[in-house]
Design a protein that fits this description.
The chain has 4 helices and 11 strands. By secondary structure, it is of the alpha+beta class.
Amino acid sequence: MKIIGFLYRDGRAEMVLKGDSCLLNGRKPFFVPEWTKELGVTDCMIVRVSRLGKEIAPKFASRYYDAVAPGADFIALDIAREAQADGRPWTRAIDFDYSLAIGEWTEVKSEGMKELKSEGMKELMSELILTPEEAIAEASKVMTIRQGDLIYIQAKQAPRIVHKEEIIRVEIDGEEKLYCKIK
């Protein structure tokens, strides 16, 4: 399984990869790593790939995923700034254990997000840097996507600072879809 991300950097989408140890699901708490002094989080949407594909056109991309979930993408902001200033990769700042919290999955059919009736989900979608179809098309230009791969797409916002004992919660249409306590 691959975890492919599209981050919002300098007004554009930048593709990154994360290891599978970054996944945090099931309402488990997030423990702030001791090696960072400034933890940020960005809202995101996670797309579950349902079939094998390479170089997929955006108009066909809705056929390649079967579920979406809200997410929270954590970043060590101080580590990212240091790496950026030194011209080093900032992988350590984004790809660490449990740095991607996943909420409850919402199943979608072959029409993808077009069929969703949920106003809350549509609102979350409007804030993303790419649609799921655009993200699938972009990722599949570079690598083969496979069933079970996850693609996360950040919202168009700068990371906000989070602190211990804070709770990250996403409600969609009055139903809690993501809950994560920071410890």
